[in-house]
Amino acid sequence: MASNAIEIHEQYDLKLLTTLKAGGRASKLCFARSRDSLAEVSKFAYQTGLKHTVLGWGSNVLPSDNGVPGLVTVNLATQIQISRDGTVTADCGAGLQELFLKTAQAGLGGLSFAVGIPGTVGGALVSNAGAYRSNVSRYLVEIEAIRDGVREWLTPEFMQFSYRDSILRQVNPPSITLLAVKLKLEHGDAKQIYDDAREFQRQRIGKQPPSASAGSFFKNVNDAELAASLTSLPLPLKDAGVVPAGYLIEQCGLKGKRFGGAMVGARHANFVLNVAGATASEIRRLAEYVNAQVHKEFGVWLEEEALYLGDWSHWQTTGELTE
Ligand SMILES: Cc1cc2nc3c(=O)[nH]c(=O)nc-3n(C[C@H](O)[C@H](O)[C@H](O)COP(=O)(O)OP(=O)(O)OC[C@H]3O[C@@H](n4cnc5c(N)ncnc54)[C@H](O)[C@@H]3O)c2cc1C
Q1: pLDDT tens, 214-263?
Q2: What tens digit of pLDDT does each residue of 179-193 get?
Q3: Of the residues 171, 200, 268, 269, which has the maximum number of CB atoms within 10 A of its CB?
Q4: Which residues participate in catalysis according to the annotation?
Q5: Mutate which of 17, 36, 60, 158 for ligand 1 pocket (most atoms within 8 A of beta carbon)
Q6: 68 with 26: CB under 8 angstroms?
Q7: Domain boundaries, given as residue ranges, for the chain
Q8: What is the DSSP letter of 180?
Q9: What's the topology of domain 209-309?
Q10: The pTM is what?
């Protein structure tokens, strides 16, 4: 790696780089300002056996209080190119909302759902981010990546996308850095594109708390039997067999429940908030307590949508609110 070109910071505080404003330090951290430099750092990390974590805006992660070993690279590569035929090429460090704005300005529809989702294209791909029945993988044609130290273009199928999931969320994920995407969007009615975006934004403002969070902490539950058994669940959700995690948490009476500086959202129960300088351990403890209560009440375990980063090797799940 041209280490003379990229500055490596030691013991960098990850609270500064995550929307939950919690967690420990990265042993080593650098900022990649272009697609090529992200590629170079990723190859270097692979060749030297350094554990490598790429971070976008840190809006879907909780780094351990014990820190993140290896090298963390913050992706600041943000180029977006739009062709007349609706083909869009974007660096994975580009903001998802910026991508919506630029494509909407070019008269291209499809990404209105992204308004209000913080984060980069890369982070969005990892969890197949979405809202309002759409998601980021829908318009994907190809992904440029570093896989096992080699730069190549991958098909969307490689990523095994499903609801808020991809191959990169597996327990032992392949060694992949996402560099860029190619999307194919359709020309649409400009007024309709902005109207949709405005409406989505309006709905979001009504639900989303302003405090530090990682968005929805848990995934919704696809369980037709459970949905049918819940008398107060709205009919469209019953029909779809989907139970929002926030519904289950609210039914357990946990809105506003606190542990240390962490709190279950009072407005939206699926948000775990950092309201008073919470440690990552306090946030995780509260989230696991919530999960245990939901399991006790409804017999299902919730799956985290937020990702735990770094060294949680000494962590013990108790489901109790003790230190
Ligand atoms: C207020 C709020 C609202 C939200 N609303 C939504 C919503 O409506 N829908 C939704 O789906 N999500 C939502 N989120 C969650 C989050 O914004 C998305 O998951 C977002 O796409 C994450 O992007 P990021 O750049 O912040 O990723 P990060 O949090 O930085 O990273 C997430 C994961 O992706 C990995 N990663 C990031 N970039 C790369 C890369 N280039 N190559 C390889 N791995 C990479 C990281 O290592 C990490 O494992 C919300 C979050 C907040 C705080």
Answers
A1: 999 999 999 999 999 999 999 999 999 999 999 999 999 999 999 999 99
A2: 999 999 999 999 999
A3: 269
A4: 164, 216, 305
A5: 60
A6: yes
A7: 9-75, 80-193, 209-309
A8: E
A9: 3.90.78
A10: 0.96
